[in-house]
């Protein structure tokens, strides 16, 4: 299987972890050599209820027995998609009310950018340095990391970059700006939170200039930061909210939500303003609905902040310089990329899954399922500290 994996399946790095998965359950993934791994990554924040969750499985099974794809997006009434978008609206502040469901996060970003241009008639887009929003051409155009995009130029014109958390750069937002797109908490950059009411200032500048604010909550959204959506921490409501990843409960999804007035622009002048075959797919919507119900009806969200405290208490080590992030979106900062690599790889050998962040080589991600237990947190943190002990010892020898 390994040989075939490298021969037939296109790779994105020369050295993928290449663990062959047998099955997964709760917070554990099992390989085909019968090894068990505690999952501190949750499919890179995409499995908030862990693996093989009975409520998600039941929702998928029930829908599977009814119908799968029957028509392109938006033509037929399909209950799972309607109920999912309704539940989202019920949990979002006004004016966020109407949702377009897509196949992935990056496609939802494309839709949001298109909507902003359509709504304002302006072309300029402002994005943040070190921001990540996906990998299709539009999303890549607003990614603030030149090294990973220069080979694909030319990209979208009229995109400008400002520094996240730097209020003086907000003067770049003018009446020529269609939208500013930001991650509520920068992910790839190393889980950087907005500071000093930054998002409130962005909101005000947008209001003053008629610019739309797009917040990308594809990673922090759906309970991970201790609120259903990260923006709830920062007293700032976006004009367009983009979600994805964890919303699908392990199936591929993206979504963008705005006011009825804004969203209705997609059906007029031109009509079919954003179309997709599979967006809002009934199986995926059923999985997402079950996920969102479980997250909003249980104490998982409030427990997230308690679990964050436990992580912070247990992860005390001379090689941990800082722990960034909020809730169960945490990044351990170590002194070098070499140590970060060693920590990820050695922990895997000890039965704990950790992973890197896109643009910050000294960071190691901890984004476990929200369902993780205190015992599992304790077990994983002990592995991290023992691996760091070993690394520290080898560095002093
Ligand atoms: C903040 C953010 N935006 C957009 C995306 C792209 O989502 P997808 O990979 O589903 O296209 C990601 C995925 O990692 C993300 O973390």
From TrEMBL:
Record carries keyword Transferase: yes
PROSITE patterns for this protein: AA_TRANSFER_CLASS_3 (PS00600)
Any one GO MF annotation of this record: transaminase activity
InterPro entries listed in its UniProt record: Aminotrans_3, Aminotrans_3_PPA_site, Class-III_PLP-dep_AT, PyrdxlP-dep_Trfase, PyrdxlP-dep_Trfase_major, PyrdxlP-dep_Trfase_small
Keyword tags: Aminotransferase, Pyridoxal phosphate, Transferase
Entry-linked Pfam families: Aminotran_3 (PF00202)
Entries under Gene3D superfamilies matching the protein: Aspartate Aminotransferase, domain 1, Type I PLP-dependent aspartate aminotransferase-like (Major domain)
Keyword Transferase on entry: yes
Cofactors (names): pyridoxal 5'-phosphate
Coiled-coil stretches noted in the UniProt entry, renumbered to this chain: none
Family: Belongs to the class-III pyridoxal-phosphate-dependent aminotransferase family.
Name assigned to this protein: Acetylornithine/succinyldiaminopimelate/putrescine aminotransferase
Annotated organism of origin: Hyunsoonleella jejuensis
Source species taxonomy: Bacteria, Pseudomonadati, Bacteroidota, Flavobacteriia, Flavobacteriales
């Amino acid at each position: 299987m390994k040989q075939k994996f490298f021969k037939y399946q296109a790779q994105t790095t020369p050295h993928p972890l290449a663990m062959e998965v047998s099955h997964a359950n709760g917070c554990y993934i099992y390989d085909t050599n019968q090894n068990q791994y505690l999952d501190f990554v949750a499919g890179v924040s995409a499995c908030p209820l862990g693996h093989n969750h009975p409520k998600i499985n039941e929702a998928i099974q029930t829908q599977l027995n009814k119908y799968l794809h029957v028509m392109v997006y938006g033509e037929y009434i399909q209950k799972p998609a309607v109920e999912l978008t309704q539940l989202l609206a019920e949990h979002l502040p006004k004016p966020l009310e109407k949702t377009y469901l897509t196949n992935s996060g990056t496609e939802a970003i494309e839709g949001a950018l298109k909507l902003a241009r359509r709504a304002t008639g302006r072309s300029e887009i402002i994005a943040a340095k070190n921001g990540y929003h996906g990998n299709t051409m539009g999303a890549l155009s607003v990614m603030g990391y030149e090294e990973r995009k220069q080979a694909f130029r030319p990209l979208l014109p009229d995109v400008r970059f400002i520094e996240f958390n730097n209020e003086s750069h907000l003067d770049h937002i003018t009446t020529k700006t269609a939208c500013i797109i930001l991650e509520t908490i920068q992910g790839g950059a190393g889980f950087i939170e907005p500071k000093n009411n930054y998002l409130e200032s962005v909101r005000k500048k947008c209001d003053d200039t008629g610019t739309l604010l797009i917040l990308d909550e594809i990673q922090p959204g759906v309970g991970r930061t201790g609120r259903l959506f990260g923006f709830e921490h920062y007293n700032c409501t976006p004009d367009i909210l983009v979600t994805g990843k964890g919303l699908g409960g392990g199936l591929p999804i993206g979504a963008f939500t705005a006011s009825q007035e804004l969203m209705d622009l997609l059906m007029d002048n031109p009509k079919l303003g954003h179309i997709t075959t599979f967006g809002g797919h009934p199986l995926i919507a059923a999985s997402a609905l079950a996920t969102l119900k479980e997250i909003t009806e249980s104490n998982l969200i409030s427990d997230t902040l308690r679990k964050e405290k436990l992580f912070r208490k247990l992860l005390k080590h001379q090689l941990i310089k800082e722990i960034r992030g909020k809730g169960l979106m945490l990044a351990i900062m170590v002194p070098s990329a070499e140590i970060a690599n060693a920590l990820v790889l050695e922990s895997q050998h000890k039965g704990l899954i950790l992973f890197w962040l896109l643009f910050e080589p000294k960071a190691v991600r901890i984004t476990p399922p929200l369902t993780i237990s205190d015992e599992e947190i304790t077990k994983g943190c002990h592995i991290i500290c023992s691996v760091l002990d070993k690394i520290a010892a080898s560095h002093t020898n």
